[in-house]
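quick one: farnesyl diphosphate bound model?
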Amino acid sequence: MQKFLEWAAPDSREFRLARQLDPAKLPGHIAVIMDGNGRWAKRRALPRVAGHRAGVQSVREIIESCCRLGIEALTLYAFSVENWKRPKFEIETLWRLLSHYLHVELPELKANNVRFQTIGRIEALPQKTRDDIDYAIVETAANTGLRLNVALNYSGRTEIVDAVNSLLRRSRRTGAPLEIDEQMFSDQLCTAGLPNPDLLIRTSGEVRISNFLLWQIAYSEIWVTEKYWPDFRPVDLLESLLDFQKRDRRYGGLNGRETPRAELAAAGTPPYSHE
Ligand code: FPP
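yep, here:
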């Protein structure tokens, strides 16, 4: 947080907004559905890929801001399993943009102590993209700052099915009983070891989840902005954080905290009650 205040110009909106934030109540994990690149481009009579290109600058600024604010984890939805339906040129441009981003930004990610990872079925991506991803993962593996996850060829439903299959395989292999609890299931997901997202941001005004982190967002606060992703700036992130800090998070109870899974298991109570 201090880093953000040192970075922002004292007469800027960013500074004014950041000053209003309570550093003790920042979300641990922010997930973002980056939407509206195509419409951003269309509005300017540009090809859709120009929107993706412009969206990279937003990616850059939001990652930097999360580092300065001291956010623990950031997950960006960059490519869903459904996105393969798009024209070949658009898909290939997205892979090129990702490779270019990793090539140009890797020194900065390392300098900022960012640990880069991906979620999704990466094996379906072109070999060159996978090599660039693997390189960035290895190069940042020892970093202890922001955990940056980029969702690529990701689907929340696929992730859940994969987790179930993995548990079934383990049970067949070891003869372990086929009874699981929430923690065992969470440990099979690609977000294992990360806190669940506290805040889910979606740009471009659409109010839907689009198959993103279905299990993990059970208690996330959702914040939607009309802005298209290429227009999303640190100021917008700060607005979302201020709004987040005003929310009354009850997790179905009254005491404002998510009941630890171990406690629920001990009580034999699944957290099914509605807020
Ligand atoms: C959604 O907008 C955006 C995407 C499918 C791609 C997001 C990719 C980037 C921001 C650039 C590369 C990413 C990284 C991490 C370097 P849309 O095309 O669905 O917009 P529309 O709904 O207006 O058509």
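Strands lie at 29-33, 73-80, 115-119, 147-154, 199-202, 221-224.
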